[in-house]
Amino acid sequence: MQINTTRFGVVALEMDDVFHFPQGLIGLESYRHWCLLRDPANDAVAWLQSVSTASLALPTASPRQFAPDYRVQLHKRQLESLELGPADETYVLVVLASGDGLLTANLRAPIVINFDRRIGKQVVTSAPDPVAFALASDSFAASTALRKSA
Predict the structure, then answer these.
(1) Pairwise CA distance, residues 109 & 31, whole Å
(2) Distance between CA 13 and CA 17 in Å, rounded?
(3) Disulfide: which of 33, 57, 93, 114 matches 47 by Cβ 3.0-4.6 Å?
(4) Hey, is 47 helix, strand or coil?
(5) pLDDT at site 148
(6) How many helices (H) and strands (E) does the chain have?
(7) Tell me, what's the pLDDT at 137?
């Protein structure tokens, strides 16, 4: 299948490239199908791109790049919809944002993805992690495009 995107033009996807978010994302509950696209200008960033809406893409990153001790604290019921099995590969991403010349990461509401079953969910953690964790300017050295578009 092919999808149109604002940032990357037309992108060819296989069905295995699409992740289903049964509850959508926080504030974007009606958008249920997403894919991850690499940022060609910044290897640290992946864009969570809506499959149905070309202009809807969220910059994401692995929190371990800038907060190596970060641990997601979730209740078991928060993970049920991910259908996690013992051998399933699970990824955690955080949404990046920019404003006032500052780049931040939302550590309070990470996105958890079961890569094997292609299911994702954004969760609100029980830990007192910040919603806007300030990133060091060198954390994303090639993030000029992110700062302009996030």
Answers:
(1) 17
(2) 6
(3) 57
(4) strand
(5) 41
(6) 2, 11
(7) 61
- 106 within 8 A of 131, measured Cβ to Cβ: yes
Q: What is the pLDDT of residue 147?
A: 41
Amino acid at 19: F
Q: Check residue 12 and give its pLDDT.
A: 96
Residue written as token pair 């590969």 = 89
The pTM score is: 0.87
Instruction: Tell me the C-alpha distance between 21 and 50, whole Å.
Output: 11
Structure tokens at 99: 């404003």
The radius of gyration of the chain from alpha carbons, rounded to an integer in Å, stands at 15
Give 144-147's long-range contacts (Cβ < 8 A, gap of 24+): 144/41, 145/39, 145/41, 145/42, 146/39, 146/42, 146/45, 146/59, 146/96, 146/98, 146/103, 147/98, 147/101, 147/103
- CA gap 58, 60 in Å, rounded: 6
The predicted-structure confidence for 29-84, as pLDDT tens digits, reads as follows 999 999 999 999 999 999 999 999 999 999 999 999 889 899 988 778 877 888 88
